[in-house]
Amino acid sequence: MRFEDRVALITGASRGIGAAIAVALAKEGCRIVVAGKTMEPHPKLKGTLLDTVRMVEEVGGEALAVQCDVRFEDQVQALVDATMERFGRIDFLLNNAGAIFWAPLEHWPLKKFDLVMGVNVRASFLCSKAVLPIMKEQGFGHIVMMSPPEHPEAAVGKGPYLVSKLGMTMLGRAIDGENADDGICASALWPIAAIRTAATENLSMGDDSQWRTPQILADATIALLSKDPKTTRFRAWLDEEILADAGITDLTPYRCDPNVEPPPLSIALVDPTWGLGDHGLPQ
After folding, report:
1. Which pTM was predicted?
2. Residue 225's CATH number
3. I want to staple 49 with a disulfide (CB 3.0 to 4.6 A). Which of 11, 30, 65, 234 is the partner?
4. Over the chain, what is the mean pLDDT?
5. Out of 92, 102, 161, 254, which one is annotated catalytic?
C-alpha cells in the first residue's frame, strides 16, 4: 500500500489507460478522482467514469467521478474544488486526457487543430495550474504528463499533434523547475509500443500483434509515482525505462497477442508513413 492516504486526480479516466491507472493506484491505497466527459454509455466507446469508479471499488478503493471538459477553466476549477471537498488534498495529477489526429498540415481542419490543442496542451496547463497551489501548501506533489520525449523527426505527418504533445512535455519541464523547492516534481511518460485503447481500435491503428495493454502504462505510473518528488527531477520517461528502473524487465504479460512482441512505436516516429493511409490519416 505505497500510496495510502494519497489522492490522485486522473483526467480522461472513463476507459483505457486512465481507467487502468485508477485501478492500479487504488490497489496501492490511493484514493481516486476520475475526470472525463462520459458518464452515460456511449454507442461507440466502451466505458464510463462510473464504470471506472466501480472497478476501483471492486479492488477495495475509494473513488469520486466528476464530469468535466478539461478544456474549460471553470469546469477544471469545479473538478479541483470537488476533489478538495471530498478528500482534502491532491497528491498526484495525471494529465491523461488526450485527442489524436494525424495528417499533413494542409489536411488539418481548424476544428481538429483546436481540439487537439485544447484537449492535450491547454487542458494540461489548466489542470496543472489549478492543483499547484494545493500541492505547494502540502509541500508534496507529482504531476505526470502523458507525453513523449522530444523526437523532431516525428513531426512529418503529425506536426500539430506533436506540437500539442511536446507542449505537454515542455509544461512538465517548466513545472518541475519552477516548483522544485516546494516538494513538487513533474514527469512525462510515453509508451515504446502502441497501446490498445478505444482510439487505436476505432481508428484501426494496428491490431493485437502491434499493441500492448494499458496495464503497462498503469504499472509504469506506479513506478514513477513511487519516487520522492522532493528528490526527483524532470525526465521524459519511456514506459520500458521506468519499469526497468523498478526491476521489471519481463514485458510479455503486457502483450495483446501473447505470441507476438509488438514493434516499438519508434517505427512510427522514424517513418511517418507507418500505419497511415491516404493523406496521412490512420488506416
Report:
1. 0.90
2. 3.40.50.720
3. 65
4. 88
5. 161
